[in-house]
Specification:
CATH architecture of the largest domain: Orthogonal Bundle
Distance between the termini: 52 Å
Shape: elongated
Largest sheet: none
Number of domains: 2
CATH superfamily of the largest domain: lambda repressor-like DNA-binding domains
Order of helices and strands: HHHHHHH
CATH class of the largest domain: Mainly Alpha
Oligomer: single chain
Length: about 110
């Protein structure tokens, strides 16, 4: 099975029409159709968009190995580390600030009136 066929398999597993799938990853419907029909290559940018948008496993999408969707904590950690390493240092600092704030919100005790 090719990468292009796996793109179609992800869309079908999500029970999505090509139109909705295309909108979600911000490409035209014809672009998605061309990928699924093998007339266009699913490049790294498209693969990354699909994985980020739908939680698909990049490894599975590229090679067919493993699970279609990332589910384990280890896979999520690996994914976030890969993405973090792609950011420039200023955005890495911003990402850390956002995560710190998310942890504060998560740990906030509603009974304390915070």
């Amino acid at each position: 099975m090719t990468v292009n066929e796996r793109v179609r398999q992800i869309r079908k597993a999500l029970n999505m029409y090509q139109t909705d799938f295309s909108k979600a990853i911000r490409v035209s419907n014809s672009y998605t159709a061309d990928i699924e029909n093998g007339h266009r290559i699913a490049n790294d940018r498209i693969i990354r968009l699909i994985c980020l948008t739908f939680g698909a496993s990049e490894s599975w999408l590229k090679t067919g190995e493993g699970e279609m969707f990332e589910t384990s904590a280890a896979e999520k950690r690996d994914r976030i580390l890969r993405l973090f390493n792609e950011l420039n240092p200023d955005f890495q600092d911003f990402a850390l600030t956002v995560v710190d704030r998310l942890l504060l919100l998560q740990n906030r005790n509603p009974q304390n009136g915070e």
